[in-house]
Structure formats: structure tokens, C-alpha cells
Amino acid sequence: MTAHAGSSGAGTPRAASIPITVRGVVKTYGNTTALDRVDLDVASGEFMTLLGPSGSGKTTLLMVLAGFIRPDDGSVRFGEREVVRLAPHKRDVGMVFQNYALFPHLDVAANIAYPLKLRRVPAAEAAQRVEAALDMVELGGMGKRRVHELSGGQRQRVALARAIVFEPRIVLMDEPLSALDKQLRDHMQIELRRLHDQLGMTTIYVTHDQREALTMSDRIAVIAGGRVQQVDTPRGLYERPANRFVAEFIGESALLAVDVRDGVCHCAGVPLAVDVWPAGGTPRHLLLRPERVYLAEAAAADGHNVLAARIVDVIYQGDSFLVQGTLADGTRISARGIATAAALARMPARGETAGFAFAARDAVLLADSAT
Questions:
Q1: How far apart are CA 334 and CA 356, in angstroms?
Q2: Which one has a higher pLDDT value, 154 or 280?
């Protein structure tokens, strides 16, 4: 994504976004390594998500960027400026916390104006900026409301308005949607992305929710064990994971044990045509996404790979169905499809044998790799 310039159209000019460069960042707590030589490049105006399970180091990295945690080693640059030793309030960073961190004794307008007050912005200008920020997050006319009178989604919007009102070049968000119900959360994902595109700020977003990351991001950095496992576009991560951890963490997957003999991949004794081989290391597993697998006759399927499996479960899920089977070696394989009347009528029963078919382009080989 490129940086934007000019007017946002809502009365607030777009900030001049800047890139972020992280090199060799280390943070330890006693014998625990929270960040292990982390390198990361974020382009100017990019929406980058830090994705990983609890304890992976993603929030620690965000706090390092914000200035609330100082790393033991390494460099953090905003544009050309080294900021490791720079105080948080001097970094020109907008922050949205998981619990919103709003002041309950102040009304909405005063909450949003707080960063402007700290920067000694004149009252008249501050009032104009607050109104523009309220309009931008679709809360126009609600400046006099008290925090306790707001819904969860409205509080989230106030927190976001406060983060952008002083026109920072970087916005950091720490799981800001985690307290919302699913329907509102899905809606706010789209709204946050829209606002990011409108403002053009460099955005770093932390979440453990893979679907949220796939929905909102230009690129995603998957983090585990204090290390960056892979940085790629949502589609790149999903279709070409770098290792087993990323493959299992992003989306539904089946990992089948394979062996390679004379340059041919075999699974459960069946030779397979595979397009995607690992860049390094010996292939150990075959990644299959259930929606890329379909049921077919066990003998043949239009030139696609076919693995015979015994059906162990058929799960109806409204708009789709999931069929699970086991190969001869006991490995589980799944196929997901659209639950049309015709597909449901052809559904095999438990205990029957069916062919699970997939194209060579949808088969991804992975080498063993430690996280």
C-alpha cells in the first residue's frame, strides 16, 4: 500500500505515513525469551497484522514499538529515526488498547481531545479536530455522551477517534475488537480497514484471530515462540505456508505424512503429483485444505490425485458440509463442499470407502522446521 496525501474528505488531513524497520530485537524476562532476534519491515501506509497464539510475543513486540517496553537489544526505526530510547509520548504514535482505556469521568469529546490537550493544541482547533474525528468514526453529534452510555462498538470507535485525532503517522492496535460480539466484530473489521484506507496511516494490528487477520491485512507477520515465522500477504500465507506451524495455525488443514522416493512424493503408498515443494529440507508432510479436496470415485478423478479413505463422519453445517475420512495408515483427511441438494444426495455414509481428490496445484509439501 502506498502512502496517501491530501484531504481525507472528512475535515481531517491525512497523516504522512512512514515505514517501520525492526532489526534484531530481543526481550527476555528471566529465563523466558519473549522476542528472539526479531526482524520486521513495514512499508509506509501498510496495514500489517501481528498474528499468533497467546504468549507468542506479538503484544510484546507491539509494546516495544509503542515505547512501553524497552528491548534488551536491537533497533527500531520509524522512517530514518531510531526510537528505541525515545519516550512513548515523543514517538507520534496513536494507540488503541484492548480495553479501550477511556476516561469514565470525561465525556466523549473530552476523551477524544485528551491527546490534543497534551500537545497544547488551541481550544478552537481542538474542537474542530474532535468533531472531524467523530464524523470519521460515524459518531457525529455524540460528543456530550458519557462513556457509560455507549455500547461496546461505540466505545471502540471513541478509542479509535482518540488515536487518530492528533494525526499520527503510525497507529498501533492491541486486539481492539476482542470484547465485541461476532456480528459487530465482523462489521468493525470492515470499518477499521475502510478508515485505514481513508487516512493512509501505517498501521500495526495485533490479534490471535486468523480470520480477522486475513480480512483486514495487507500483510501478516505470523509469530510463535518469540520469532517471526513468516511474513506474507493473506493469500500467500494461506496457500504457501513456510512451515508446519503456519500451515496449522492459518485455516483448516490436514497434514499427511509423505515420503519421497526417486523424486516422487508418496502418501499412504500412493504416488502423487505435487506442484509446491519446500524451498529447503526434505518434504515430510503434505498440506491439504478441505475446501480444495472433493469426493470422487476411488479409482479415478479426471487426472487429479486420489486417496482412498474410509468415511468416519459427515458433518452438515448449513451452507457447507465437511466429510472426514481416514487413510489406510489412520491419518485423517477432510473434504468441504457447498451443501447443495445434489451434493447432499450423493453423500457417502459412514463406514463406506470414498476417494478424496485434489489437484497437483493444491498440494503443498512442507519440510520439518522448528518454530
A1: 8
A2: 154
Give the integer Cα–Cα distance in Å for 126 and 116: 6
CB 210 within 8 A of CB 53: no
Between CA 343 and CA 16 the distance in angstroms is 52
Q: What is the DSSP string of 55-66?
A: TSSHHHHHHHHH
pLDDT at 1: 37
The helix/strand/coil state of 276 is strand
| Residue 357: strand pairing partners | 294, 306
DSSP bridge pairs for 210: none
Determine whether 194 is exposed, middle or buried from the number of CB atoms within 10 Å of its CB (0-12, 13-18, 19+).
exposed
Beta strand pairing call for 170-174 and 202-207? parallel
Burial of 322 (0-12, 13-18, 19+ CB in 10 A): middle
Report which secondary-structure segment, H or E, holds 129: helix 123-136
Continuous segment of H or E residues that includes residue 338:
strand 332-338
Q: What radius of gyration do the chain's Cα atoms show?
A: 25
For the stretch 93-146, pLDDT in tens is 999 888 778 888 989 999 999 989 888 999 999 999 999 889 888 888 888 899
77 C-beta neighbours (distance < 10 Å), count? 15
Residue 180 DSSP one-character state: S
CA nearest to 175, candidates 82, 309, 308, 58: 58
Mean pLDDT of 49-73: 96
218-245, pLDDT tens digit by residue? Answer: 999 999 999 999 999 999 999 999 999 9
- 8 Å CB contact between 205 and 47: yes
Angle among Cα 256, 221, 249 to the nearest 5 degrees reads 30
Q: Which residue has the cell 480470520?
A: 211
Q: In whole angstroms, how far apart are CA 318 and each of 126, 252, 291, 309, 339?
A: 51, 18, 15, 24, 7
How many CB atoms sit inside 10 A of residue 21's CB? Answer: 16
Return the amino acid letter for 334. Answer: S
Total count of residues recorded for the chain: 371
Residue of 90, 53, 49 lying closest to 68 (CA atoms):
90
